[in-house]
C-alpha cells in the first residue's frame, strides 16, 4: 500500500534536512498515527505521499506507483486515489455543503446520477445530510471538518491522509471526528494521520510512528504518543510496594 525506502528530503532554499533516510511500510487497512514535535518532519512526510513535495532521494511507492518517478501529467491521477484532509478544512466558501463534496467527483467527471447518490451517502456517514444546502460560513468548525472528510472519501479512496484534522477543534468535537475516521477505517480504508493530540493517540492505541529530527525513532503497534520515563517511587511506595 505505502512503501518508503531510504527517503531523504532536503529543502534547498534553506538547506534544512527534513527527513533523513526514512524507511517504512504501511499495509492495506491500517490506521497509523504519525507523531512528533513541530519541525520533526511529519508534515513533510505527509506532503511527500501526495506529491506536494518531492523527495531528494529514495523511493516512495503509493498504491503501486513510485511517486518519485511520476510525470507531471500523472500526479492528478495519483491524488484521485487518495483522500486528503487538512487542519484548515480548505472548503470552497461560495459553494454549499453538497457542492463542496460534489466538486471532488466533478473533477473526475463522474456521471450526475452516481455523483448524487455518492454525495448523499457520504453526507449520511458524516451526519450532515440535513445541512446539504448550507455554506461553510454557516457551519461550526467540527461541521466544516465533517464536510472536508466527506469530500475526501466521496471517490472511495484506498488511502486517506489527514494532517492534524482535529487541530482546530475542541476535545468533544475531536472525538466525534475520530469516530468517523474509525468507521471509515473499519470499512477497509487505510488511514495515515499526523497529529499532536496526545489524548486521542493514547486512548485509541493504534500503530504509532514517532519522528524526531527527520528520523523514525519509534514504530509500535498499539502505541502511545510519547514514551515517558517512569516516575521515581516515593519513600511510601518503596516501603509498601517493594
Q: How would you describe this structure to a colleague?
A:
- With 242 residues, this protein is an alpha/beta fold.
- It has one domain (2-225): Rossmann fold, CATH 3.40.50.
- It has eight helices and ten strands.
- The strands form two sheets. It has a six-stranded mixed sheet with strand order 6-7-8-3-9-10, with helices on both faces. A four-stranded antiparallel sheet has the order 2-1-4-5, with helices on one face.
- Mean pLDDT is 91; it is low at 235-242.
Short précis:
This protein is of the alpha/beta class and 242 residues long.
User: Biggest β-sheet, characterized?
Assistant: 6 strands, mixed
The computed structural class is alpha/beta
* Helix/strand order, N-terminal first: EEEHEEHEHHHEHEHEEH
Please state how the strands of the largest beta sheet are arranged side by side: 6-7-8-3-9-10
Amino acid at each position: 500500500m505505502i512503501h518508503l525506502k531510504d527517503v531523504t528530503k532536503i529543502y534547498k532554499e534553506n538547506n534544512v534536512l527534513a527527513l533523513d533516510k526514512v524507511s517504512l511500510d504501511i499495509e492495506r487497512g491500517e490506521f497509523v498515527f504519525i507523531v512528533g514535535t513541530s519541525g520533526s518532519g511529519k508534515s513533510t512526510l505527509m506532503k511527500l505521499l501526495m506529491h506536494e513535495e518531492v523527495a531528494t532521494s529514495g523511493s516512495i511507492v503509493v498504491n503501486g506507483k513510485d511517486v518519485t518517478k511520476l510525470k507531471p501529467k500523472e500526479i492528478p491521477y495519483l491524488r484521485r486515489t487518495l483522500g486528503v484532509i487538512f487542519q484548515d478544512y480548505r472548503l470552497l466558501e461560495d459553494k454549499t455543503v453538497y457542492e463542496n463534496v460534489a466538486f471532488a467527483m466533478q473533477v473526475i467527471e463522474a456521471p450526475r446520477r452516481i455523483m448524487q447518490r455518492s454525495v448523499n451517502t457520504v453526507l449520511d456517514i458524516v451526519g450532515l445530510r440535513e445541512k446539504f444546502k448550507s455554506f461553510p460560513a454557516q457551519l461550526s468548525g467540527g461541521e466544516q471538518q465533517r464536510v472536508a472528510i466527506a469530500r475526501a472519501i466521496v471517490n472511495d479512496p484506498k488511502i486517506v491522509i489527514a494532517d492534524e484534522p482535529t487541530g482546530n477543534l475542541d476535545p468533544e468535537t475531536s472525538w466525534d471526528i475520530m469516530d468517523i475516521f474509525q468507521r471509515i477505517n473499519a470499512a477497509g480504508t487505510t488511514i495515515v494521520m499526523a497529529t499532536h493530540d496526545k489524548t486521542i493517540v493514547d486512548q485509541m492505541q493504534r500503530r504509532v510512528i514517532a519522528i524526531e529530527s527527520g528520523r523514525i525513532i519509534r514504530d509500535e503497534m498499539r502505541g502511545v504518543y510519547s514514551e515517558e520515563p517512569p516516575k521515581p517511587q516515593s519513600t511510601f511506595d518503596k516501603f509498601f510496594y517493594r
